[in-house]
Amino acid sequence: MFELRYRWLWVTASVVLVLGVIWGSLQTGLDFPAPAGFDKVEHFCTYLILALWFTGLFPRGRYWAVVGVLLLLGLSVEISQYLMHAGRMADPYDMAANTAGVALGIAMALIATGGWSLKVDAWLR
Predict the structure, then answer these.
(1) CB 3.0–4.6 Å: which of 12, 96, 112, 121 could bond 4 by disulfide?
(2) What is the DSSP string of 80-125?
């Protein structure tokens, strides 16, 4: 992680973000009907946002770790959905959408958005 003055803020926000994704992926009480295939858009956008978030906090040399952890998160959620038997279904296409979101997020970080937290952290000072 970059040397950030408000590191505690970035770590806390990251934990809240990841826990929110896990909760949203595993909860069963608020499952609203969506148009066919729309859940793939949700998966894609969620993992795109996660990739953009974490590539803003870590230098380029650590992007491989960001990719690995995000893909492991997505796979863990899909396996958990399968094991829960509580109304959620594991779907390999969800994992494909997750992977595509991570890939676009990494590409965007390499082109323009990587390291954004340094600018925000400096602005907060």
Answers:
(1) 121
(2) HHHHH-SS----HHHHHHHHHHHHHHHHHIIIIITTHHHHHHHHH-
Other beta carbons within 10 Å of 117: 23
94 is written with which tokens? 């969800």
pLDDT of residue 32: 63
Overall pTM > 0.85: yes
- Neighbouring C-alpha atoms within 13 Å toward the C-beta of 1: 15
What do you get for the CA distance between the two ends of the chain, in Å? Answer: 18
Q: What is the pLDDT of residue 20?
A: 96
Q: Which amino acid is at 35?
A: P
**pLDDT of amino acid 59:** 95
Q: What letter would DSSP give residue 60?
A: G
96 and 37 Cβ atoms separated by less than 8 Å:
no
CA separation for the pair 48, 101 (Å, rounded)? 4
- In percent, the amount of the chain with pLDDT more than 90 equals 69
